[in-house]
Amino acid sequence: MQMQIVIKSLGIVLALIAIVYMLRPDIAKRLVTFFQKGSRIYFDGVINLALAAVFFIGARECRYPIVIFICGVVFMAEGFLIFSFGPKKTSPILEWSREQSEGLFQFMGLILGAVGVATFLSA
Questions:
Q1: What is the pLDDT of residues 105-116, one digit of tens each?
Q2: Which residue from 24, 74, 87, 102 puts its CA 20 to 30 A from 111's CA?
Q3: In Å, how far from its chain's centre is CA 45?
Q4: Where are the domains of the chain?
Q5: pLDDT confidence of 1, banded at 50, 70, 90?
């Protein structure tokens, strides 16, 4: 039961972040710039792996465990890719994404919002 609360809370946080991205895409661009500097991208990798662990642990206690498990797989894949590529290979990707239109960041926020809502409803 406690893991359901944690998963629901993460769903709410993801949805709130998505709302910020949709309303203020410049904030998302600044976040990309932040992670692009030095080895900060590894912090994002750690966050993703920690989220994956929480989703994997909590999946069995949720109403729709497959949805939560898939979210965990996505977070784990992103975390492993970040550590595999490292700052030198991720920096050009981050630079490319930072140069994209605000509409793309709003669309990414929409996708993140859908993941947040699905997470909340699946817990």
A1: 999 999 999 999
A2: 87
A3: 10
A4: 2-122
A5: confident
Compute the chain's Rg from CA coordinates.
15
Q: What is the pLDDT of residues 44-84, one digit of tens each?
A: 999 999 999 999 999 999 999 999 999 999 999 999 999 99
- Among the listed residues 39, 36, 20, the one whose alpha carbon sits nearest the alpha carbon of residue 28: 20
Q: Look at residue 62 and give its three-state secondary structure.
A: coil
- Measured distance CA(99)–CA(26) in Å, rounded: 11
Residue in the structure block whose two tokens are 């797989």? 73
Residue 37 DSSP code: S
d(CA 116, CA 91) in angstroms, rounded, equals: 27
